[in-house]
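seq/struct pair 1
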Amino acid sequence: EEGNIDPSTIIPLIDGGTEGFKGQARVVVPRVTSCFECSLETFPPQRVFPMCTIAETPRLPEHCIAYVSQLEWPRMHSRPLDPDSPSDMQWVFKRALERAERHGIEGVTYFKTLGVVKNIIPAVASTNAVISAVCVAEALKLLTYCGQTLDSYLMFMGAQGMYSPSFRYGQKDSCPVCAEQAVPRELVMSGASPLSALLLLLARDPALQLARPSLLAESTTLYMQRPPQLELALRKNLTRPLQELLESGELLTVTDPALGEQALTLRLLLTP
């Protein structure tokens, strides 16, 4: 009522994750502590390949694999690609190998194909055990009140020793999830930069963790990843300067599969 939180409705969340010898755990109390979205920038950036690169100028074996799995498979099959199907992955591997040979690229293997399509992350059993124990301990504290819960973030770095600092992760004013009124994030770019440069910047931003961003301006649709027909119609915008497509200070709406039903609002400031 009147903007005040009813404590009886709060359901704490416990999150933990690992990658190799690194791990993290946190306790999220909705509307009290920072949420999962607030700390996305601490995650390693996803490996994302610009559509213009994989379609026109592939340079790495990953580009060839991404081209086949993201563009060629939908054109030639009426069903989604199944990463767990050996026959599907063999098809992707063979077509990616053919494309790599045409462009003089080496390094396409079946195991690399699996790694790119399935986004395989290395796991170490001992790291998993440590983070699992932390999560269980936090759940026990919440259920029995036997001790102070984590406030609110713990990092584990076991590559060169046992180092596990904890600290309070602050809420972000621009967070679209937990901020009462999210402030649009501002980006500054040269007006002469092409739209593809903006998409690449968004895809590589660790604070956003986007996979395949699409962009809508207040005045027009700039670029959409899906459906294929719309992507093809808007692909010409990728090479056009930003100053030809929109005004400085215009609000942009960013959608992405990683955001689900949410959308990000950005204000783009163009420099001469």
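seq/struct pair 2
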Amino acid sequence: MKKPTAFGRKNGLLFWLFVSVASSWSRTAGYAEAFNPPAAWDFYAKALVTKPLLTKSLTACGTNAFSDAICQKLLRDSNSKSSEEGKSKFDSRRLIENAFTGLVWSGPIAHIWYSLLFGKLTVQIKEPVVSLVTQIILDALIFSPVTVSGYFAVRSVLEGSGFAGVKDKLKTRLVSSVLGAWKFWPAANVINFSLVPIPFRVLYLNVLSIFWSGYLTHVNSKKIATSPEA
């Protein structure tokens, strides 16, 4: 019998992690049904009400993993066309770390922030247009820098670079990433904050984060040249 390869063991770990959290989610939500689209949506909607933090965290975990997989696939295909060495290996550890970041950071911080944004921070504003503009501005000025900083911090810790890695990434990547967020999220949030029901706004964010997380994981992974100190 052949011994499992390192790639096989890593993907086995990823599969085990996915099954474990999915099973836990099913139990804590209170019921499980045979899969069909209407039942799946009812299950998810109920979970958003009964276990909102867990549900949003697991959703961010899944979308981060999916986003990273797509990003790696696109980069591998692009590199294979421009390099004689062919495709680079799929980085399973990177995918797992990105998924874990969604679970412990991206999902929870979005849940907490949206509770504040649509609660204490703007609930007193009665004019819809003023409320929408205020929410978009607050999201851009507060949430974008915080969530991007936290993303780089968690990824640095998982990668083993510690405080020095966090400091380096914030120094070399934070400003450009926040500027990128300001180009992407305000327009997206016009729809989210005005048309999407509040319980589903983090879901909307998570779906669009498939694209945004792909950008962030690419920025996090690429090497940035720094000029030597004088």
